[in-house]
Amino acid sequence: MLPRQYIFESLKAHLKARNLTYLDTALALGVSEQTVKRIFIQQDCSLERLEEICDLIQLDLRDLVQSSPRQRKNIQQLTYPQEAELAQNKKLLMVAVCTMSLWPHEDMLQHLQLSPLECEALLRQLDKMGFLDLMPGNRIRLRVAREFAWIVDGPIMRMVKSMAGDYFDHLFEGEGEILKIINVRMSRPSAKKFRARLEKIAEEYADQVAIDAHLPLMERPPLSICIAARRWVPAPLKALMGPRTPQRATG
């Protein structure tokens, strides 16, 4: 394989490992999808453009020509003990959340109250879990699958539920914020269809993280998304439901 061909094939492999499409790459670079396709078809672009694509996948250019992605399956879920470890170690959890938002090591040192040694040790713990690959120079390659989810009733979700009061004690009027609670009645097939659409929306939020990863951290304020749907009637209203009990005639 010629050097040029090897570089672009390796680059495609790294994009695929990150679940990044040509469209995702185009949006991140501020060009058209057709431009990105042409780059890979012709296997030709400027060194500056090549470096921009490498920045998107958090890979140094010299590493691109030396290796292709390690054949290590991305994880869709942690084990219960691993989640428990994160829930008990708030610093470890914070670093894990930051890596999921594609923070580079330098931003962690600048914006988290962690020493360089402490931060590196936490990243190495996440590497052992299979959560990420810690590469030379403390560069990070996330190993979380696009479909990653916390265990439904696991340690992390229980911790999050315990903070529900703090989460909802908010006006939800800021930029990009929304809170809507609607009560509906629909068939089970319809409910299943809408659940699939909600899951698609959640995936789009996750995909946008990778698309915006090239922006400075201060231009990417944190946004927490809660999507929930369940069979539920508020307790004050539940007592009013059911068939009306006929009153006995008197006299």
What would you note in describing this structure?
- There is one protein chain.
- The model has no long low-confidence stretch (mean pLDDT 87).
- The chain folds into 3 domains: 62 residues, 434 Repressor (Amino-terminal Domain); 63 residues, Orthogonal Bundle (Arc Repressor Mutant, subunit A); 74 residues.
- Strands 1-2 form a two-stranded antiparallel ribbon.
- Helix 2 crosses helix 12 and helix 6 packs across helix 7.
- The chain has 251 residues and is mainly alpha-helical.
- Helix content is 51%, strand content 3%.
- The protein is globular and about 95 Å long.
Low-confidence stretches: none
Percent strand: under 5%
Helix tally?
A: 13
Helix content: 40-55%
For the record, the count of structural domains works out to 3
Shape: globular
The neighbouring-strand order within the major sheet is: 1-2
Mean pLDDT: 87
Largest sheet: 2 strands, antiparallel
Strand element count: 2
The radius of gyration is: 23 Å
Q: State the end-to-end CA separation.
A: 101 Å
Helix/strand/pairing class, anyone?
A: mainly alpha
Instruction: Name the helix and strand elements from N-terminus to C-terminus, one letter apiece.
Output: HHHHHHHHHEEHHHH
